[in-house]
C-alpha cells in the first residue's frame, strides 16, 4: 500500500496570486472543490508554481456547487484512492464545512485544518483566473 497525502487548493496550496502555500509531495494527490469549469486555468496556475501532481476536480458545474458538495466530492475521491490501494496519511484542508463532510464519511482520516482569511471559501472565481467569465 502506497502512503500519500491529499491537498485542497484554495486556502492550502493557493493563498492568493502573490503568496506561496503548502506544496504537496511528488506522489501526493490534489482534491479540489474547484469545478471542472475551472480546470484549464487552475492547471496553468499549478504548473506555474511547479506543481504537477494529479488533480481531482469537482464534477459539479461552477454555478451549482456548494461547500457541502465540494466536501462530498473530496470524500468520494478519498474513498476511490483507498480502493486503488493508497493509504491516505493526511488530508490538508481549510474549509471547516468540508472538513465536517469528509469526517462524516472518513471519521478516522487525519485532517490538518489550515486556518486563514487569505482566500474566500464561498463559490467565486479566484483571482488567478485568466480573463474568463
What is the gist of this entry?
This protein is α/β, with parallel strands linked by helices and 133 residues long.
Description:
The protein has 133 residues and is α/β, with parallel strands linked by helices. It has a single domain, classed as 3-Layer(aba) Sandwich (Rossmann fold). It has helices at residues 39-48, 67-83, 96-105; strands at 2-7, 29-35, 55-58, 86-93, 111-113. Helix 2 (67-83) crosses helix 3. Residues 129-133 have low confidence and may be disordered.
Task: Set out the fold topology.
Elements: E1 2-7, E2 29-35, H1 39-48, E3 55-58, H2 67-83, E4 86-93, H3 96-105, E5 111-113
Parallel strand pairs: 1-2, 1-4, 2-3, 4-5
Helix pairs in contact: 2-3
- Across the major sheet, the strand order is 3-2-1-4-5
Shape: globular
Cα gyration radius (Å): 14 Å
The secondary-structure element order is: EEHEHEHE
Portion of residues in beta strands equals 15-25%
Helix/strand structural class: alpha/beta
The tally of beta strands, per DSSP, is 5
Mean pLDDT figure: 91
Q: Main beta sheet, described? A: 5 strands, parallel
Number of individual domains: 1
CATH topology, which one? Rossmann fold
Multimeric organization = single chain
CATH class: Alpha Beta
CATH architectural designation: 3-Layer(aba) Sandwich
- Unreliable stretches: 129-133
CATH superfamily: HAD superfamily/HAD-like
**Helix fraction bin:** 25-40%
Keywords:
133 residues; alpha/beta; Rossmann fold; five-stranded parallel β-sheet; 3 helices; 5 strands; 28% helix; 21% strand; globular; disordered C terminus
